[in-house]
Write a structure and sequence with these properties.
With 326 residues, the protein is α/β, with parallel strands linked by helices. It contains 12 helices and 10 strands. The chain has a single domain, classed as TIM Barrel (Alpha-Beta Barrel). An 8-stranded parallel beta barrel has the order 3-4-5-6-7-8-9-10, surrounded by 6 helices. A hairpin with a 2-residue loop joins strand 1 and strand 2. Helix 4 packs parallel to helix 6. The longest helix has 23 residues. It is globular.
């Protein structure tokens, strides 16, 4: 068994809002961070009561942080006021029990700046900053975009590199520019799916905490030193995601981690089948949560897809429970 000796294991996780580096306060990202869904009523409006229930479910399951205003939360289908209201509600519900990270994604830099200001106003713990979609900025233009958002909030930042959605990837020039200008850029959700990008970050930018953003590579991320995972599936099977994190990062037991990952791969394959948010929301229904449908242009799962996902989740939970039980 490939297990680290006890003296080298990391201590059990508990959240501290910050720590000191060279006398400066820096936020540390560790554990499972859930990009929360946004439940809808039958009329397509945001269901605030159901949203609060989702947050309570995640906190009770002991996820390590919650992200709102992300892709899984359908931020792109929300009005600006809905995003402001949702962030404020999330802070009211969560309080200081776990870190709250607020997404700032938008096509216009000016809009992202306003979301960053709102996050600061509600005392969010950090913000999520991605590349603006469709515009295809250069590395320097993308860095200027991120720095404008940073200036507006002056909060810890988790970058979000998702070229498949945004059209551009954050590269060396981008990272060198933003980290030289501000110490707020402390983490990145890396969702390019490119192993070379992970290797570059781990070797060349050790001041940025790497968070897995490409689910079927979670084991590789942990092997390369990542201590957190932003995973949409943790909306409805949080304990199984926590189990993989604990096996790899807390216990250093990658044999156990491989077995858990093998059990999770069928779900990850299903989620990448073209109806990602719809599948996450139906998974939440399987967990007893009220999720509602999805906003246009997306459409829900058909009955065959629902049955397929339910079978996968049932088997996944059975296998992971058996692994944890030893």
């Amino acid at each position: 068994m490939c297990t680290l000796p006890p003296a080298k294991r990391r201590p059990p996780f508990h959240w501290k809002p910050d720590f000191l580096i060279d006398g400066e306060t820096i936020m540390k990202f560790e554990g499972i961070y859930t990009p929360a869904i946004t439940p809808l009523t039958s009329e397509g409006q945001i269901d605030k009561a159901a949203f609060a229930e989702v947050l309570e479910y995640l906190i009770e399951a002991k996820v390590h942080g919650i992200i709102i205003g992300g892709s899984t939360g359908e931020y792109y289908a929300h009005t600006a006021q809905e995003r402001f209201d949702l962030a404020a509600l999330a802070k009211d519900v969560i309080g200081t029990r776990v870190p709250l990270i607020v997404g700032t994604g938008a096509v216009r830099t000016e809009d992202s700046v306003e979301y960053a200001k709102a996050a600061k106003a509600i005392k969010a713990d950090a913000i999520l900053v991605g590349s603006p979609p469709y515009a295809l900025p250069t590395e320097q233009e993308n860095a200027a975009h991120a720095l404008a958002i940073d200036k507006a909030a002056d909060l810890p930042i988790m970058l979000y590199n998702y070229p498949g959605r945004m059209g551009v990837s954050m590269g060396r020039e981008f990272f060198r520019t933003v980290t030289a200008a501000s110490k707020n850029f402390v983490a990145i959700k890396e969702s390019s799916g490119q192993a070379s990008q992970l290797h570059m970050l781990a070797r060349e930018f050790t001041n940025i905490d790497i968070s897995c953003g490409w689910d079927d590579q979670a084991l590789e991320f942990f092997a390369w030193g990542a201590h957190s995972w932003v995973c949409a599936g943790s909306n409805f099977i949080p304990r199984e995601h926590i189990a993989l994190y604990e096996a790899c990062v807390i216990e250093g037991n990658f044999d156990k981690g491989r077995r858990i990952m093998a059990a999770m791969l069928p779900l990850m394959d299903f989620l990448e089948g073209g109806k990602f948010v719809q599948s996450i929301k139906f998974g939440c229904e399987l967990a007893g949560l009220r999720s509602g449908g999805v906003r246009a242009p997306l459409q829900g799962l058909d009955e065959s897809e629902k049955q397929g996902l339910q079978a996968i989740v049932t088997e996944l939970k059975r296998e992971v429970a058996a692994i944890i039980a030893g």
